[in-house]
Amino acid sequence: MALLPLRPEFPPFLSKGGTLSRCRRPGTASRRGKSKAEGRCAILFLCRSIEKGGKVLKETLLRGRIVRALAGYYDVVVEEDGETPSAEDGQDFRRSVLRTRARGLLRELGITPLVGDLVHVRPTGEGEGVLIEVLPRKSELVRPPAANVDAVLVVATLREPEVDLAYLDRLLVHVEHARLEAVLFWNKVDVLGLSEREELEALLGVYRSAGYATFAGSVRTGEGLPEVRAHLAGKVLVLAGPSGVGKTSFLRVLRPDLPLAVGELSRKLGRGRHTTREVVLVDVGQGSWIADAPGFGALRLPDVGLPELGRLFPEIAACAEGCRFRDCLHEREPGCAVRAAVEEGKIARSRYANYLTFLRELREMHAERY
Ligand SMILES: Nc1nc2c(ncn2[C@@H]2O[C@H](COP(=O)(O)OP(=O)(O)OP(=O)(O)O)[C@@H](O)[C@H]2O)c(=O)[nH]1
Ligand SMILES: [Mg+2]
Ligand SMILES: [Zn+2]
């Protein structure tokens, strides 16, 4: 078998026992059952065709991560020396980026590469290459379209803009529903007076006791940034939160060299700079990658059944095991451990109130359908 000599640094999923069935079309198996492409991966095709030609070509395939996707082009940051691509402080972040196009076979197999994908590329010239293979995905997000995301970095502020806890809890429900980790960063502490700082402290307590990694600081003064940054190490994250809380500012303070407007690629392709809301994954060092996203307005709840909602509030889920009824919705049922925890101050009243609001909203959503 020519697999190993051709590419000694194959990813674990291929080299481990050489089980070819593990190499499958990413992201489809769970949703649509066995995909057409299962067991037939692009790399395997490549190897077979080289073998058929009678000799094994020494080909250089590099591993990397897609950091930007637009109009059929994929920018790939290439791994160096088998290390996960990442830049430490003081290094040039822009090194080793290949602008690639997906090889025809990927299109034939119906594989759409996404930002965040780990891939194999074949360099073809200065800064250019062909995307040969998309490695299996750990996760896949629809909005923003991104693969292998570990966590959502939720940015909030107590003031400027004024906090909206219902919005924040709604966002957290979405993160739970997507089965991603949520990391909370309360920005702009520099604008807070003494009593507001105390108010913020109380809120930090609410979200920490709910189970969320929660940090506070200021992009403007730098306060609190090392702590949150350390927590992000090794993770792929997308930013979320209302408009104006400082998401883009946060990214810029970690990567001061970022061009002011992301849109260079669209310009090159002769398109308007703002025609596409592209997703760009930024290497911020320490093995973490962050994608900016614009703040969005009104947010619908994810379409879940009523009993599911409690599972999307970690602190309610933890208490619900003590409820008398298994299908307890924690409203007025007797023997409800969640309401008892609220009375004892173990679950924050604001979180419980938002839970009840969302429960009513889901009922209305379901009722509208009939
Ligand atoms: N006082 C203060 N202002 C800040 C801080 N961080 C960001 N800002 C300001 O807040 C404003 C909004 O920041 P952005 O980074 O554009 O906010 P955003 O979350 O990206 O907003 P959208 O892209 O609209 O979703 C800018 O004027 C920033 O200079 C901070 O820590 N303190
Ligand atoms: Mg922004
Ligand atoms: Zn209950």
Overview of this protein structure:
InterPro entries: G_CP_dom, NA-bd_OB-fold, P-loop_NTPase, Ribosome_biogen_GTPase_RsgA, RsgA_GTPase_dom, RsgA_N. It comes from Brockia lithotrophica. With about 375 residues, this protein is an alpha/beta fold. It folds into three domains: about 5-135, Beta Barrel (OB fold (Dihydrolipoamide Acetyltransferase, E2P)); about 145-290, P-loop containing nucleotide triphosphate hydrolases (Rossmann fold, 3-Layer(aba) Sandwich); about 305-370, Ribonucleotide Reductase Protein R1, domain 1 (Orthogonal Bundle), CATH 1.10.40.50. Helices cover about 30% and strands about 20% of the residues. It contains 14 helices and 13 strands. The chain has helices spanning about 5, 10-15, 30, 40-50, 105-110, 165-175, 195-210, 225-230, 245-255, 265-270, 305-310, 315-320, 335-345, 350-370; strands spanning about 60-70, 75-80, 95-100, 120-125, 130-135, 140, 145, 150-155, 180-185, 215, 235-240, 280-285, 290. A six-stranded mixed beta sheet has the order 10-9-8-11-13-12, with helices on both faces. Helix 6 packs across helix 14 (about 350-370). The longest helix has 20 residues, at about 350-370. It is globular and about 70 Å long. The chain starts with a helix and ends with a helix. About 35% of the residues are buried. The model is unreliable at about 1-45, about 55-60, about 85-95 and about 260-275 (pLDDT under 50). Bound molecules: guanosine-5'-triphosphate, magnesium ion and zinc ion. Guanosine-5'-triphosphate binds near residues 218, 219, 246 and 249.
